[in-house]
Amino acid sequence: MRRSLGSCVRELARRRASQGREPLLTVHHLNQLLLVCSVVLLVAVAAVRISSRSGLPSLLVYLAIGVLMGQDGLGEIHFNSAAATQVMGYAALVVILAEGGLGTKWKEIKPVLSSASVLATLGVAVSVGVTAAGAHYLVGLEWRQALIIGAVVSSTDAAAVFSVLRKVPLPARVTGTLEAESGFNDAPVVILVVAFSTAGPVEHWYVLLGEIALELAIGAAIGLAVGWFGSWGLKHVALPASGLYPIAVMAIAVTAYAAGALAHGSGFLAVYLASMVLGNAKLPHWPATRGFAEGLGWIAQIGMFVLLGLLVTPHELGDDVWPALIIGLILTMVARPLSVVFSLAPFRVPWQEQTLMSWAGLRGAVPIILATIPMVNGVADSRRIFNIVFVLVVVYTLVQGPTLPWLARKLRLGEEGEASDLGIESAPLERLRGHLLSISVPERSRMHGVEVSELRLPPGAAVTLVVREEKSFVPLPTTVLRQGDELLVVATDPVRDAAERRLRAVAHGGKLAGWLGANGAGSSR
Question: pTM for this structure?
Fold first, then answer.
């Protein structure tokens, strides 16, 4: 006879009570856990404001919170499960890569896709070899431990790169290359770390290269396929509530990771590519989706860094400080520049951009998470590997992050005067076979001072409402648009894309965009 779930739970509770055991998680424990988690999140949110003013990467603040809560800190929380950290770190990394992919603009990375791919593969190989050689000959580590450290620290961290670069006004080619590299290089690095951490001798290099190529190909194919089918479905199926679109987008991204990993491919590459396809598909309610993904990304970053701070034992780091500084110096001053020079040599990238890319290879939580793989696999001296990686990441992130804007200015690569991109939200009007576009005119936009008639929208599109200083009105053809205005544009299905292209062109090129070749030759009409 089948029993209900409630009866099973009650019977289990009675058995535990009869054995003198308390439930694994009581309501009182839940209340305490919620209080601690909410306080940590609030402190972390406040720390973002502090770090943005001081120039320090916020990830260091999150790590410090975890250390203070740990066994050597005020909280005295004893946490030493490398396996749990690895699992939760992987889950957080999936969310971070999804958020990064959703924010990656195809028009920025398309011209640099080949160079970023070479940097994420050949560049990783050069970095691993040079760093491992330095760790072996200068620090005295055995070759297996040296190769593991070389692979672990060769991955640029997506969270660190995304958070820093989007605050620095750099040329699109530099930003696109670094963002694409950080999204791509996690996949080969994870494969290398797992291979070096397995028991027994490392396989022949050509076998390892073949496995890496196969896993990357499987992950790329699955990621692109899931992203395309997911975007097609979201465009053609009108969901009953706008809040379902962000959930669906994140679910599709996670599906790409899980499908890629289960197919023995690179799940990390799959989730990044699927998210990039979704992010460039002009889905309905996109700003809301982007905000939802960004919020999840922040939660993932905070949770991951705090957890890593809990795992580390500060009083054990003393003997590993100097090895970490030496390996970090080799990585930053030798391995990373060589990987950039060798990878970008065929693409004739100016030396100023190569210099900045060499310094902008930021590390974050990903290397620390990858350092738990040898711990889980029982590699000799794996705890020392973790401590060295932790110190290296903290010290060199503290040095590189705040100095990146200064170096960009010295190399004259900043673009302070560039107009901000136009924020456009699209909501489908199913019965009317049209779209309602919501546009916010940002600062420095060249749409400021343009009359409504000078937008020259295609037939079938019109500005129906303007919201200015919390007051809305129906604009006249002679109404002059200003910074901070919010526009509602109604466009029929056939001209929706043309209307959006025209609005973006005016935002960057002014009212003469198209006539004078601003942002593309020819009129968008």
Answer: 0.74
